[in-house]
């Protein structure tokens, strides 16, 4: 899912819905010394598990992803290089998922990348509305269950 992240150049990464931190741990092990990872997790159990990681480059927020711009502003961060999302967009109310996608797009640097995995192709059209023609679609059969991986580049 994150094989295309250039950790040598990434200064700010955001993870939406990191769950128990499986991907988070991999990101933290590969971050450049001056980079930061900001995680948005609203599930109490997962939030506590992430806080236990106690990594100096990790910021864990118990805040909904739709508040991404507000929270980045509080952290004095203008733009991010990568957003990695494990959010189950298909079960989130449409107005909320639309807001998350729009604000994620706004939060990205030009040429920043939004990575989303889903178990169906149902969100391809919505992602295309936000990111236009700059979407590539991958498939990961080794994931349980197998998942589609959307890679969306912010082109302005």
Q: Outline, from the CA principal axes?
A: globular
H-E order: EHEHEHEHEHEE
Can you tell me the CATH topology?
Rossmann fold
Termini separation (Å)?
A: 24 Å
Overview of this structure, please?
The protein has helices spanning 22-30, 44-51, 68-74, 94-107, 124-131, and strands spanning 12-16, 36-40, 58-61, 80-85, 108-118, 135-140, 147-153. The protein is of the alpha/beta class. The protein has one domain: Rossmann fold. β4 (80-85), α4 and β5 (108-118) form a beta-alpha-beta unit. α4 (94-107) packs parallel to α5 (124-131). The longest helix is centred in the middle third of the chain and has 14 residues, at 94-107. It starts with 11 loop residues before the first strand and ends with a strand.
Summarize the structure.
With 156 residues, the protein is an alpha/beta fold. It is built from five helices and seven strands; from the N terminus they run βαβαβαβαβαββ. Strand 6 and strand 7 form a beta hairpin.
What's the layout of helices and strands?
Elements: E1 12-16, H1 22-30, E2 36-40, H2 44-51, E3 58-61, H3 68-74, E4 80-85, H4 94-107, E5 108-118, H5 124-131, E6 135-140, E7 147-153
Parallel strand pairs: 1-2, 1-4, 2-3, 4-5
Antiparallel strand pairs: 5-7, 6-7
Descriptive labels:
156 residues; alpha/beta; Rossmann fold; seven-stranded mixed β-sheet; 5 helices; globular
């Amino acid at each position: 899912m994150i094989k295309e992240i250039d950790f040598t150049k990434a200064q700010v990464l955001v993870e939406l819905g990191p769950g128990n931190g499986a991907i988070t741990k991999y990101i933290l092990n590969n971050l450049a010394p001056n980079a930061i990872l900001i995680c948005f997790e609203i599930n109490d159990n997962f939030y506590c598990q992430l806080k236990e990681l106690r990594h100096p480059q990790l910021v864990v927020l118990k805040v909904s992803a739709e508040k991404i711009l507000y929270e980045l502003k509080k952290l004095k961060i203008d733009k991010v290089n990568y957003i990695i999302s494990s959010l189950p967009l298909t079960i989130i109310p449409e107005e909320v998922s639309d807001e998350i996608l729009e604000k994620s797009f706004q939060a990205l640097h030009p040429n920043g990348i939004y990575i989303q995995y889903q178990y169906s192709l149902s969100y391809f059209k919505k992602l295309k509305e936000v990111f236009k023609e700059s979407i590539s679609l991958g498939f990961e059969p080794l994931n349980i269950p197998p998942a589609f991986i959307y890679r969306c580049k912010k082109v302005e």
